[in-house]
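Weekly puzzle thread! Below is a chain. First person to post its structure in token form gets bragging rights.
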Amino acid sequence: DAEIGATEITPVFNMLVNAEQKRELNMHRWFTINFSEDVDLEVAAKTLSELSEVKRIQFNIPIETPKSTAVEVDLSQYAATRSESLPFNDPGLAKQWHYHNDGTVDFPNAKEGADINLFPAWKHTAGRPEVVVAIVDEGVCYDHEDLKDSFLVNEAELNGEPGVDDDGNGYKDDIYGYNFVDKGRVTYTRNGDSGHGTHVAGTIAAVNNNGIGVCGVAGGTGKGDGVRIISCQIISQGRAASCPDTAAAIEYAADRGACVLQNSWGFEAGAISNDAHFEEGDTSVELVAINYFKQKKNCEALDGGIVIFAAGNDGVAMAVYPGAYNSLISVAAIASDGLPTHYTCYHLGCNVAAPGGEETITGETQGCVLSTMPPAFVSTGYAAMQGTSMACPHVSGVAALAISYALENGIKLSLPELKDIIV
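Winning reply:
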């Protein structure tokens, strides 16, 4: 340690849970090494690489924090005029064109059918609580009126002592998930946060048919039957988690029972150029965690975990990594006219497109995606946003519905089968 100027060495992964499977994946061999500021990291890396015990060294490159602007939407004006023909009584459903677009959205060139065709799916299933979706993002507002009943609550921590790891899983106070940036409770504050994680979560799991707010793709029927979510926070107050902490967040999602991994984040376009670079370069530890998630069988209807990423908003002909990786699903964005949005990444690495929304040149937001937002950010608790970040949870919600349907009908899906269904 003294020779290379290391100040701290800590394991990346949590061997208190499911250690045997993690050892099979060599997860126990990953460590984070911190150095004093005056150390030349290239020299330290060279010194470490000469040790026979060291197989790989990864520098810590930051993820690209999503940049999205939320515009507040007041749903009270729609409550008295909601259509009896809609499947559920949530007042905002009529404005969620991304679920059902009849061509009358107040947006230029709105096209009938430019949506995810959700209403017919809801006739078969609207989600099951046994299906858990991990939101790897900013912290999700766990006391939002339209989301609070959708969380997979860690009862041992909820009813335990503050500051104590009551369930022995290595994390203190992880009631609704865990904050991997600040190492503690899930947070959402106006100091640098954007509400991004809460908006993403609402598209997947806002409670349906509760007479308030908006609908989630897999938000159930108002009888407590929607999917459950956990918040794996990798962005806090504008700061992104380190690479090892991001990997730990994915590991945590698997260990908490998630079978769908929702990721509206990624590395800067071009930072990783191909699959070999992703496998062997400065993102190896994230791939180890992703592979662990894919192997973890947390739902009896699926033989692993499905991983879904946003394609990125850089407008280039290649999805950003990790989503561009061959075994994952990367989601590009369309607008309410059915065409690609001006910002979406596309082509190489992209598997599917979903509604991400697009503002008009006058700044109107009717063509954006409507979802939940922390009331501390916007007084109504609902807002419109655009981005592949908004497209991605539509696909995660669809995946959750497919798994829910399989669960209800005694079907066992393989990961390739589920990916084929989605694509």
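Puzzle host: Confirmed. Bonus trivia for everyone else. The first helix runs from residue 19 to 24.
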